[in-house]
Design goal:
Largest sheet of chain A: 3 strands, parallel
Number of helices of chain B: 10
Structural class of chain A: alpha/beta
Strand content of chain B: 15-25%
Oligomer: heterodimer
Radius of gyration of chain A: 20 Å
Shape of chain A: globular
Order of helices and strands of chain B: HEHEHEEHEHEHEEEEEHHHEEEEEH
Number of strands of chain A: 13
Number of strands of chain B: 16
Chain lengths: 301, 346
């Protein structure tokens, strides 16, 4: 409905479901501006895609360790990613499947793509949820509430309290306790709600779909229309520079994918905005990176 | 101590904000209801949306999932509750609630079960939004639109069935595919009962006002070598096929409902094939008493080309149909009346 694509291809292994979904969309053709919608389990149908959104993968079973889940998804990605690359060697891959930071790393490794063309949906949704909750507290539309959640997508995401603002007015300046346990207004709870919101929606309706779908559309729009908007998405934060020892952004040294503010356009990720973080915020990011690397190094790719 | 809110923002307009002007309520948050909700939200048609259902967890979960997308939407207020008070002051109410046919169940039994559900739903809707326009989507849509009209006490121009809006969209998509053009460039209408006995108006099918039947007089008949009739058959079968493949249909119907909503909310006066009451009172200056369209004298709802604007069904286009097409419409009407007359407790 946001009219971003001139052709849409769907791929899955469940053939009936795939065909049914394609037909249902095609039947809405009169109301859409995307003249060609195709679907097949064979990846040749995806040829010449500008953007490929990957939502496939297994869900965590009860009691399953994150590592085991990731290894199962690595095996699925081993089939998917080379097929995508084969038919769309110049595409931008947008990974949504969870745990997204690790799987974006996996997709990057398996694709052989340059790092600016493999992006994880990361904290784009977390930030949107944060801004929605902020808007509710202040009775404003979310688009007028500025706040960034970065780092690992999930339990240890990092809310950048020092940057939260409305019309350039820093909220932390108005309330120096913001984000701490001493804060009488308990703004820290806003971030807690963001972290828990996915679990809550899953508990209530079984899964989340709408918000993540809209957030992916938001990213695809920026990519296809070459808008150069800044989004908190998952990208590699180790940068090999010309001098040694190699210095990662924010002092992170492993090849991990984390969400930081990125400029997106039709080449993919073109630039990263260097946020000035407080020491605690950098420490939290570093902690995320260590956790992620701990899982990544055990993977068999 | 002043809160962040107080320090940050100074109120100017002392009075509370006004109520919504284009509130849309969706009754039923199943696959169809949510597809309608999302299509309407992404088309930016409503300034407020309310969701109602009896399954409280599912309802709350769906509402939250939509709210989390607020940053990407232009509908600032989305609410949900099983209590209909949350639907107050709606302009449009979309009804997708109802039960599905059980294996071996007769249509009459299905309808009677849905009547019992609608008896609870419809009066509540009308209580809180007495000036709304109702769009009925639940199947069998023509009969349930009649039921809704009876239970609501609303004038017939404010009770619409989604009817053949989707059938016509599917027809236009399939015909356009064969001709290599976009669906919006193919003009074609499917009228009558939504379902197996819908009526494709072959005499009107055209592209750039070039009438297809003039190019091929056999079009739509069994004699036609190109077998265009098959396209209509595909329309009739398509819902069953999608259901067989993925378990249900939702995207196309959701988009089609958003299309109708747009005409109503934006007062566009566009023509849509929707289910409306076929029997109506003709102006006294033109004729005497009640006169059915196409000679149909029962109070049935069938899809006809209706001009939709902010009053609802403002008028109906008197499409010229062949005798055969009129006969098919009459047959639909008889079938529908046969079921309607046995319904209890309307």
């Amino acid at each position: 409905v946001q009219e971003l694509a001139d052709e849409l291809a769907l791929v899955d292994v469940i053939e009936d479901k795939l065909k049914g979904e394609m037909m249902d969309l095609q039947h809405g053709g009169l109301f859409l501006r995307t003249p060609k919608i195709v679907a097949d389990k064979d990846y040749s149908v995806t040829a010449n895609s500008k953007v490929v959104v990957v939502t496939a993968g297994a869900r965590q079973q009860e009691g399953e360790s994150r590592l085991n889940l990731v290894q199962r998804n690595v095996n699925i990605f081993k089939f998917i990613i080379p097929n995508i690359v084969k038919y769309s060697p110049n595409c931008i891959i947008l990974v949504v499947s969870n745990p997204v930071d690790i799987l974006t790393y996996v997709a990057w490794k398996l694709s052989g793509f340059p790092r600016h063309r493999v992006i994880g949906s990361g904290c784009n949704l977390d930030s949107a949820r944060f801004r929605y909750l902020m808007g509710e507290r202040l009775n404003l539309h979310p688009s007028s509430c500025h706040g960034w959640v970065i780092g690992e997508h999930g339990d240890s995401s990092v809310p950048v309290w020092s940057g939260i603002n409305v019309a350039g007015v820093s909220l932390q300046k108005l309330n120096p306790d913001m984000g701490t346990d001493q804060d009488s207004e308990n703004w820290k709870d806003v971030h807690k709600q963001v972290v828990e919101s996915a679990y809550e929606v899953i508990k209530l309706k079984g899964y989340t779909s709408w918000a993540i779908g809209m957030s992916v559309t938001d990213l695809v729009e920026t990519l296809l229309k070459n808008l150069r908007k800044v989004h908190p998405v998952s990208t590699m934060v180790k940068v090999t520079l010309l001098f040694s020892p190699p210095q990662g952004m924010h002092g992170i040294h492993d090849e991990v994918f984390l969400s930081v503010p990125c400029v997106l356009g039709n080449t993919g990720l073109s630039d990263i905005v260097k946020m000035s973080l407080k020491k605690e915020e950098e420490d939290q990011l570093r902690k995320s990176a260590d956790t992620l690397w701990g899982v990544q190094k055990e993977l068999k790719l | 101590m002043a809160t962040v809110h107080e320090k940050l923002i100074t109120a100017v307009a002392g009075a509370a904000a006004e109520g919504p002007r284009n509130k849309v309520t969706i009754v039923g948050v199943g696959q169809v209801g949510m597809a309608c909700a999302v299509s309407i939200l992404l088309r930016e048609l409503a300034d407020e949306m309310a969701l109602v259902d009896v399954m409280e967890d599912k309802l709350k979960g769906e509402m939250m999932d939509l709210l989390h997308g607020s940053l990407f939407l232009k509908t600032p207020k989305i609410v949900a509750d099983k209590d209909y008070a949350v639907t107050a002051n709606s302009r449009i109410v979309v009804v997708t609630a109802g039960v599905r046919q059980q294996e071996g169940e007769s249509r009459l039994n299905l309808v009677q079960r849905n009547v019992n559900i609608f008896k609870h739903i419809i009066p509540q809707i009308v209580k809180y939004s007495p000036n709304c326009i109702l769009i009925v989507v639940s199947n069998p849509v023509d009969i349930l639109t009649y039921v809704t009209w009876k239970l609501s006490g609303l004038p017939k121009h404010r009770v619409i069935g989604s009817g053949c809006n989707l059938d016509s969209a599917r027809f236009r998509y399939l015909m356009a595919e064969k001709l290599g053009i976009h669906a919006s460039s193919f003009q074609g209408w499917i009228l009558g009962e939504h379902g197996d006995s819908s009526v494709p108006v072959w005499s009107g099918a055209n592209v750039a006002v070039v009438n297809l039947q003039k190019l091929n007089p056999d079009i739509g008949t069994d004699k036609d070598q190109e077998n265009w009739k098959d396209t209509h058959k595909m329309v009739v079968d398509s819902a069953y096929e999608v259901i067989r493949l993925k378990g249900y249909t939702n995207w196309a119907i959701g988009l089609s409902v958003a299309d109708l909503t747009e005409s109503l909310v934006k007062n566009l006066s566009r023509i849509h094939p929707v289910s409306t009451m076929v029997k109506f009172k003709v102006s006294p200056s033109l004729s005497v008493g009640l006169q059915g369209m196409y000679g149909i004298n029962d109070e049935v709802y069938l899809s006809l080309p209706c001009i939709l604007n902010n009053t609802g069904v403002n008028s109906v286009v008197n499409m010229t149909l062949t005798d055969e097409e009129v006969a098919k419409l009459k047959k639909s009407a008889e079938t529908l009346w046969g079921i309607q007359k046995d319904l209890k407790d309307l």
